[in-house]
Amino acid sequence: MEVRRFGKTDVDVPVIGLGTWLTFDVGPSGQRNANSVADAAFAAGTRFVDSSPMYGRAEHVLGSALGERRDEAFVATKIWTRSPEEGREQLRQQLDHFAGRVDLEQVHNLVAWKRQLAWLEDEREAGTIRFLGATHYSASAFDELEQVMRTGRIEAIQIPYNPVERDVERRILPLAEELDLGVIAMRPLGGEGALLPGPDPAKLAPLGVETWAEALLEWALSDPRVHVVIPATSDPDHARANARAGRLPWFGPDEREVIGRLAASTR
Ligand SMILES: NC(=O)c1ccc[n+]([C@@H]2O[C@H](COP(=O)([O-])OP(=O)(O)OC[C@H]3O[C@@H](n4cnc5c(N)ncnc54)[C@H](OP(=O)(O)O)[C@@H]3O)[C@@H](O)[C@H]2O)c1
């Protein structure tokens, strides 16, 4: 799987990551399946995993699924609360789940970002957190996201990017490139797989991909300003299939346009 240097950090990340929203919010009976998804993803080269306190039991389940592999993983998670005290409690729990450190701590949906960044920077200084980031799922918040990016206080952003959600192309991706920030593409399959199952597989053959999911993931990664995509799955076979999208060659502008048209027509 291809790796990309994650913005201005010294870390190379394999381009296919693993999201955990809904799929890892499971009880004890679902842990075994979550382990199998993580096994399949890691065997295929995935290392970047993304979670949040907003995702119910997902951080706990992810921590258990990683187990002894914790050191191989790049754990991205989030702080999601207006209160710094509660934020500190969220970090405390994450340190339990992820063997004492978080690789990328993101301010989820920009909630109280000024207040949260103030203490998160101390944690980064102390080494419990390696890098800081900010996320938002809605284009209506991109002015504020731009403001955070320009502070110079974060190393990465997480934004929605797929053929029918391209608002980031106007200002966010150019700014991320200028500031050398890591870029994580969330909702690469449309958000909860909204762009699936997609067109007739026969239409994909000329694109050199086997599945529509692969086409969508490769579509996002064909923009070199994106470093990692984080599809979520509860199916080990899907995790393996998604990993196949992390290989060269990337799509050119014509192929991206074809995929854009197919995506629009299958909505
Ligand atoms: N920061 C934020 O505000 C925010 C918001 C949304 C999402 N996120 C992050 O981004 C991640 C991804 O977004 P998302 O979970 O909304 O949606 P997504 O990754 O676009 O789609 C996930 C869905 O696609 C299906 N899927 C995955 N691979 C497949 C394959 N190869 N073939 C067929 N179906 C496949 C999964 O079903 P199966 O289980 O059947 O595979 C799942 O239902 C989240 O998990 C989360 O970590 C962040």
Describe the protein:
This protein is an alpha/beta fold and 267 residues long. It contains nine helices and nine strands. It has helices at 31-43, 58-66, 84-97, 113-126, 142-150, 172-179, 212-221, 236-243, 253-265; strands at residues 3-5, 12-14, 48-50, 74-79, 102-107, 129-135, 156-160, 182-186, 228-229. The strands form two sheets. It has a seven-stranded parallel beta sheet. A two-stranded antiparallel sheet has the order 1-2. Strand 5, helix 4 (113-126) and strand 6 form a beta-alpha-beta unit. Helix 1 (31-43) packs across helix 2 and helix 1 packs parallel to helix 8 (236-243). The protein is globular and about 55 Å long. The protein binds NADP nicotinamide-adenine-dinucleotide phosphate. NADP nicotinamide-adenine-dinucleotide phosphate is lined by residues 19-21, 23, 50, 108-109, 135, 137, 158, 186-193, 196, 211, 213, 230-235, 238, 241-242.
Offer a concise description of the structure.
The chain is of the alpha/beta class and 267 residues long.
